[in-house]
Amino acid sequence: MTGRASKLLAAAAAALALFVLVVFLLARFPEAMEDGAAKPILVHQILLLVFVGAGLIVHWRARPGKAIGQAALWLAIAGLLFAGYGFRDEAAAVWNRLAGELLPHRGVQRADGSITFAARKGGHFVVEADVDGVAIRFLVDTGASHVILSAGDARRLGYDLAALDYTRAYRTAGGTVFGAPVVLGAVTIGPIRMDGVQASVSAAAMGRSLLGMSFLNRLSGYRVAGGRLTLQAPR
User: Fold this and answer.
1) Do 176 and 164 touch, CB atoms closer than 8 A?
2) Which of 6, 8, 30, 148 is the most exposed place for a label (fewest CB within 10 A)?
3) What are the structural domains, with CATH classification, of the chain?
4) 20 close to 12: Cβ distance less than 8 angstroms
5) What is the pTM of this model?
């Protein structure tokens, strides 16, 4: 048998051995493949180890000393990959918390189905929501009876401002302001989703849309404490 054929045979044998090991582990721990989000990552890591392991065995036959060092490096990498897989939930929680601190309008989701937002300067809360597939940032306003859309955000949602009827009156500190009644298909904030939210498109100039009581009243609850706003998903 030639040297090349011997190496190919060794690689094939190594790949087969690793494949059998993977099949055994999956049969022993079937729950590892039940997580739909983690499944592609796990499969990718397994395939990577199979090919790398086969290559190391072939390299061992040619240069044993160098192969030992490379094997140690790949074992360390494999350990980190599997540790990352094992602690993926904890890592996701840390990333979620970090993102919430760096981007306060995104909020921090909690295990109980709530989401919290840190106050901006002046004590105001800005919340980013997905409204019918469009990301919109709202200023939370418990004094607003409805969700109020600025003209700019209404355009982004596809409303023809000239075709709306501005018949709903709101009393504000600056006087009476009119809005056009609309119904939002779906408003999603983190784990919270509400369909058919009553809203208005403001006829007056606004710097930011308002998240009012037509949304807040449908929550299980909301509270402000310690400079944070907590929204609780409906039951």
Assistant:
1) no
2) 30
3) 3-86 (no CATH), 105-232 (2.40.70.10)
4) no
5) 0.59
